[in-house]
Amino acid sequence: MSNLPNPFISPSGKKPNCMEMLQLILDGQATADQSEYFKTHMDHCMPCFKSYQLDMSIKELLRTKCCGGDAPSELVNKIKSQIAQNI
Amino acid sequence: MEIEDAPNQHYSDLEKGEIFNNEFLPHIHSMYNFGYRLTLDRDDAKDLVQDTYFKAFRFIESFQRGTNAKAWLFRILKNSFINDYRKKVKEPNKVDYQEVETYYNSEDVDRQITQDLRVDALKDMIGDEISNALNALDVDFRTVIILCDLEGFKYEEMAKILDIPIGTVRSRLHRARQLLKEKLSEYAKSMGYKNT
Question: Residue A39: enclosing H or E segment and its boundaries?
């Protein structure tokens, strides 16, 4: 593990902390190399493993519980008709 | 025009209608949810969404077809919220971003929050708790969570929507998640979950 090059290191040479790595993974913005590295890292870093589980659960909870609800149909119709009049 | 820097396009009325119906309107439910989560009021959300769509139509020629319509619309809504709604309702919230940067470098704080809140406690939260916890955050923190976790925008898109650097997006998001976890941890305690 320590022999693997760390793909999270920035071009300036700054080594990221666990939380910065975790954030990229959580938000699906890590590269394939970074994802692979982090997977191995989690095997050795229990705090990261726990944080990952918790953060993913919260993200999923937010997505399923806070996204609901369509825009009211009268709002949609009002916008549509106003625009139709202006075309 | 403050919305987009791209040079103006030229569209016929037919093309304008097509863009509006095919690229703008499909996002209306996400836009309404965004408006509601910002204002926490359904009537205000309706006004904000309506205003945003009218502005989007008025400035449709500064939208480049095939680019990210959702991000463009979210940016207009966010600007309307800041420039019109927030001024009308109250003074803008002030967040000490210096503190955010400091926090970002403190892993100990993260570890403590994570220890206090466990996945099994989250499983018993039926929906109101997470929604209330989100709504209780300062609007600037709430916004980054909405954009990232609810709407799935990438950091780069969020930076454009919010007019802030990517580094600030990431540090604000990090701090927002810490605050959200603190609130969820309070709910978990009130539900009888003990700290590990």
Answer: helix A32-44
Give the model confidence (pLDDT) of B72-129 as tens digits.
Answer: 999 999 999 998 877 776 655 555 554 455 555 555 656 666 666 878 778 777 668 8
- CATH number for the domain including B51? 1.10.1740.10
The CA distances from residue B99 to A14, B106, B159, B177, in Å, are 21, 11, 20, 15
In chain A, where the domains are located = 18-86
A75 touching B, CB under 8 A?
yes
Residues B120 and B168 placed together within one structural domain of the fold:
yes
Domain shared by B84 and B37, yes or no: yes
Q: Which residues does chain B have within 8 Å of residue A53's beta carbon, measured at their own beta carbons? A: 119
Which of A83, A86, A87 to substitute to test the interface with B, most B CBs within 10 Å?
A: A83
Indicate whether B81 and B102 sit together in one domain: no
Residues whose CB falls within 8 Å of the CB of residue B176, separated by 6 or more in sequence, listed in order: B137, B141, B142, B144, B145
Helix pair angle (B42-58, A73-86), 10° resolution: 20
Question: How far apart are the CA of B32 and the nearest CA of chain A, in angstroms?
Answer: 6
The DSSP-derived string for B11-45 is --HHHHHHHIIIIIGGGHHHHHHHHHHHHS-HHHH
pTM: 0.86
